[in-house]
Amino acid sequence: MTTQEILDRAVAARSALVLLTEDKKNAALSAMADALEAATEEILAANILDTEKAKATLSEVMLDRLYLDAGRVHAMAEGVRAVAKLPDPVGKTLASHTRADGLLIEKITVPIGVVAIIYESRPNVTSDAAALAFKSGNVCVLRAGKEAHATAAAIVKALRTGLRTAALPEDLVSLIEDVTRESANELMHAVGKVDLLIPRGGKGLIRACTENATVPCIETGTGICHIYVDRDADLDRALAIVENAKTSRPSVCNAAEVCLVDQTVAPAFLPLLKSRLCDGRADMGKKPVELRLDEEAGKYITGTAAKDEDFDTEFLDYILAVRIVDGVDAAIAHIARHSTHHSEAIVTENAATAARFTAAVDSAAVYVNASTRFTDGGEFGLGCEMGISTQKLHARGPMGLSELCTYKYVIKGEGHIR
After folding, report:
1. Alpha-carbon gap, residue 97 to 187, rounded angstroms
2. Exposed, middle or buried, 396 (CB in 10 Å: 0-12/13-18/19+)?
3. pLDDT at 97 (0 to 100)
């Protein structure tokens, strides 16, 4: 089926969602989750095909993004069930007032319409996006990268089975069959068919969408995330935070890519950092982190000499750029120059310094004494997410159900005329 045919069917299916009650939505989501688990063998077989093909082109950490096992499929199904438990965001009254003449004006949440998602090699995005779109009353059109297409197709087949079980049109969730750039281009220019485009992936994909799309587009994902270790930091706490932010899952957008260290604590902290992330991990048989050090940091520990571009790179790997700075204001200035406005953290015991940092840093999520790895829909209590928006309109940070709604005004009168 062509991309345009899929879009036409998606637009036609939209009317089936308009009057669905919350109970019917939740029953359908339950059926979709059950169908996912029932199709585990089929999904895993497709995933083996994808991962075998991708071994020649993807790094180890990126292969981990693509890889599925039975536990991960179960987690995907549980993610769909978790969305079913969340409150329905549609039909909420955001504001209401009555004029002096008795005319009632209400501001009501409504679905956006047809939401298209272009993503790369993370199969769980398929089920997450479909569940969120459906619960928020939107039709979902998915376009997976070629590395994950067979897996995505098996997942969508299961989700559509769940929709049929719930006596709903399967076209409420669709997967674009064409994996060439032409299909992505068609989605970017599907004015009148696609109401919102969400790219989830690397810098190149996001830039292509935000620069070329003629449909409304959300900028998501690219995460050059910073952790600043302040002169008043608890160094043990800082070590644990940096280690978690860098190594717990380096292939995700909320992993730390840059560590800024106050010059006052650098002589004590940097040897501890090298011992924790490099030597200690190697001794345990884990992959050590490559530290890319600016000239000042290189005076205290050995590592790779950092290049200018290392402070503007989302490594998505066991690599951490390290720079020494002169105080919190210098850290704030560095972040302003290099951040992608995703997630930044400060480690400090000084409340005034923390307040200065959180007020001045202009990112979607700003942390005090916590890992950047919490920037996630589930961790924020939003359920699974469509992505992390790094823009300011109309959504910012983890995009959950409410970010997939817009609003309209409903005006009620009794024969009022102007």
Report:
1. 39
2. middle
3. 97
b/e string for 63-73 if b means 16 or more Cβ within 10 A? bebbbbeeebb
Q: What are the Cα distances from residue 104, in Å, to 107, 406, 411?
A: 10, 20, 6
| pLDDT score of 204 | 85
Q: In order along the chain (418 residues), what is the average pLDDT of each group of 10 residues?
A: 97 93 97 98 97 88 89 95 95 97 97 95 92 97 95 98 98 97 96 95 85 92 92 98 96 95 98 97 96 97 97 95 98 97 97 98 97 91 83 87 95 95
pLDDT of residue 385: 81
Q: At what angle are helices 40-54 and 70-85 packed, to 10 degrees?
A: 120
Q: Report yes or no: 73 and 124 within 8 Å, Cβ to Cβ.
A: no
Give the model's pLDDT for residue 266. 98
pLDDT at site 366: 98
Q: Which amino acid is at 94?
A: L
| Token pair in block for residue 167 | 């006596």
Contact indicator for 288, 319 with CB cutoff of 8 Å: no
d(CA 39, CA 269): 50
Amino acid sitting at position 219: E
The Cβ of residue 361 has, within 10 Å, a number of other Cβ atoms equal to: 23
- Taking the C-alpha atoms of residue 246 and residue 241, their distance in angstroms, rounded to an integer, is 9
